[in-house]
Design brief:
alpha/beta, 332 residues, 5-stranded mixed β-sheet, binds zinc ion, 10 helices, binds 5'-O-[(R)-(carboxyoxy)(hydroxy)phosphoryl]adenosine
Length: 332
């Protein structure tokens, strides 16, 4: 029997991501080529609740993790015996959801004797930029805007980053989702609001962009402003002006992100600016920062290719220590 610590160092990395409501598995080579990237979204399941229900997410991950892993291996054409390492999101995220991925990864690493690499979800998002065919090399300033986080990072080497700024309240994706909910678009609403905004006038409503000191963000006031604007309109008027509300609201979020990202680049003196995370899929943000490198669309929202990518620059935890690892819910 193969020893659990007999690491096949050069083999591809099997990535697993279950931190929120996407069950994802991917196979990535050591050179950063994506051989398979399978994402099973639970969005529809949570739509009726208006947000992710943690216990429902955990149960669904449990059902999906095995078929998603099988699909990724089949798609990659790589046999489980030829995998060199298993990389998994350890946190931050929903504890019960993370535990499903972590347990699956431990089981595979132990049973197959392959290296085990725990990955921080945020490092994963940044590492979506390191994949082929156009890998980005540090140094760069990175705007990470997702449903859970809004961060400005100084990335000096592939294995790490320093935080330059963060949100003081809601994340940018959360602001999109809450706005979309107020406009009756369901969950998660970021992409739907993006589509609706294309038909509206972004100057129709004036929504405030909070100016907070340093390189931090604040989005909670914006959400309240939209709430009041919606309340002031009767049903027919609201229906008529929904596209304008969406466009104006999106403009305010995008403006805040663009301003701060440019300030961060100026302050650090870094030449390049990159944008990752679910909100990096936003069409107005992409158009408003023509100088920035954006993660490819399919790698903006949660996926396991980015987790496997991050594992290329992180140390494996040896057997048997990895069996004792736990997940973590929030940024330390
Ligand atoms: O990175 P991600 O998949 O999950 C977290 O790590 O949080 O980001 C999901 C977030 C959601 O809030 C979703 O509404 C937002 O990204 N999002 C968008 C767009 N596509 C996804 N927000 C604005 N415009 C989009 N096109
Ligand atoms: Zn994410």
């Amino acid at each position: 029997m193969r020893r659990p610590d007999a690491v096949r160092n050069g083999g591809p990395i099997l990535g697993i991501e279950t931190s929120c409501d996407e069950t994802a598995a991917a196979v990535v080579t050591r050179e950063g080529e994506v051989l398979a990237n399978v994402v099973a979204s639970q969005a529809q399941l949570h739509d009726r609740y208006g947000g992710v229900v943690p216990e429902v997410a955990s149960r669904r991950h449990l059902e999906l993790v095995e078929p998603v892993l099988s699909d990724a291996l089949t798609e990659s054409g790589i046999d489980l015996d030829d995998i060199g390492a298993v990389a998994v999101t350890q946190g931050p995220g929903l504890v019960g959801a993370l535990l499903i991925g972590l347990s699956a990864a431990k089981a595979i690493a132990w049973a197959r004797g392959v290296a085990f690499v725990p990955v921080d979800h945020l490092h994963g998002h940044v590492a979506s930029l390191y994949l082929q065919p156009q890998p980005l090399e540090p140094p760069f300033v990175c705007l990470l805007a997702s449903g859970g986080h809004t961060l400005l990072l100084a990335v000096r080497e592939p294995g790490g980053f320093d935080v330059l700024g963060t949100t003081l309240d809601d994340a940018a994706g959360e602001a999109f989702d809450k706005g979309a909910r107020l406009l009756g678009l369901g969950y998660p609403g970021g992409a739907k609001l993006d589509r609706l905004a294309r038909e509206g006038d972004a100057n129709a409503f004036s929504f405030p962009v909070a100016r907070v000191p340093g390189l931090d963000f604040s989005f909670s006031g914006l959400k309240t402003a939209l709430l009041y604007a919606v309340r002031d309109l009767d049903e027919a008027e609201l229906e008529r002006r929904r596209t304008d509300l969406a466009a104006s609201y999106q403009r305010a979020i995008v403006r805040a992100l663009v301003e701060r990202a440019r300030e961060a680049r100026e302050q650090t003196g870094f030449e390049r600016l990159a944008v990752v995370g679910g909100v990096a899929a936003n069409s107005e943000l992409r158009a408003s920062l023509p100088e920035a490198v954006f993660a490819p669309l399919e790698l903006c929202t949660d996926n396991a290719a980015m987790i496997a990518s991050a594992a290329r620059h992180r140390a494996a935890v040896p057997y048997p220590e990895f069996l004792g690892l736990d997940v973590y819910a929030s940024l330390s």
